[in-house]
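Whether sequence alone determines local backbone shape is best considered at the level of individual chains. The sequence in question and its structure tokens are set out directly beneath this paragraph.

***
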Amino acid sequence: MLHKEYGRTGKILGAIGCGGMRLPHPENPEEGIAILHAARRAGINYFDTAPYYCDDRSEAIFGEALRTMPPAPLPLYVSSKCSRPEAAEFRRGLERSLERLGLARIDFFHIWCVMDPADWRSRVDGGALAAALKAKEEGLIGHVCVSTHMTGPEIERMLADHPEIEGVTLGTCAINFPYRLQGVQAARRLGRGVVAMNPLGGGLIPQHPDAFDFIRGPDDPDVVTAALRFLVSDPAITTALVGFSSVAHVEAAVRAVESFEPYGPEHLENLRARIQQDFNEMCTGCGYCLPCPQGIPIPRYMDVHNLMQLGASADEIRGRLKYHWDMTPAQAAECVECGQCEARCTQHLPIIDRLKKVAAFRM
């Protein structure tokens, strides 16, 4: 498997990481433990979990798996998170994670689910960042990181303003990379590690292989392989974090990057251009439609509309709104049809009509 250094930390991570959000049947931990052990045997050494994953059982399953983890050549690194902005609550969250994982230190601990600059400011003013840095001084955290859904420019500003942040976990994939590309590139320039969550578009890519077949190159056997190779070829991205729900998923992800030479810069740029050209019916999340005079987060709603175009179920759409973006359809209805977004859209999408469709969705 490919391996890369995480920012300037000196830590070497596999190009594929193991996400703990999709472990099957969390009430029966043996199956999840078997998946985590299979990931370790396959050469994966970055294991990411969090409170509330898998009915709030993911950290406990990780803890059990870590106690019996098979040996492997590279060190194993554990990541977890806390979303509380207040220093005392953040500290309690960290201590709870340490207890459930059975660890004296968590290698990569994230200030979790930062949605926008105001949310980030609440983590600074509320003391979460200071609490994380203090815990690092005490040896309870190896590296202080941020997990965020902010835009690329917002991520760049956060990293530039806070050199103490050593890395970032963000959502990026072959179908929405423009939305955070500036942040990814800034992280590399500033020497920070990048873990790409949702590398398969939250399951969209494997669930709709025909719709996304255009991302596949001549040497890619399937769209999953193509999507992972696209990300791990980016020198700015340390690890693509895949949520595994079976041992077969582990094997497929690792196989995608075995004996694979990352694409060169020219090929990668050509691939990005082709994706943006071919992905012309769904929003790529470039953000050129912004700012909206009404403050509507248009790319986020267009991401939800992408699901609608693909025929996603109502539950999938609700989940995207609630758990990924932490919003409801209501703000989409605030559109006054000024048309500024459509005039700026490089894809010439009917944004106004799409906002109406999302606004009409019933949670």
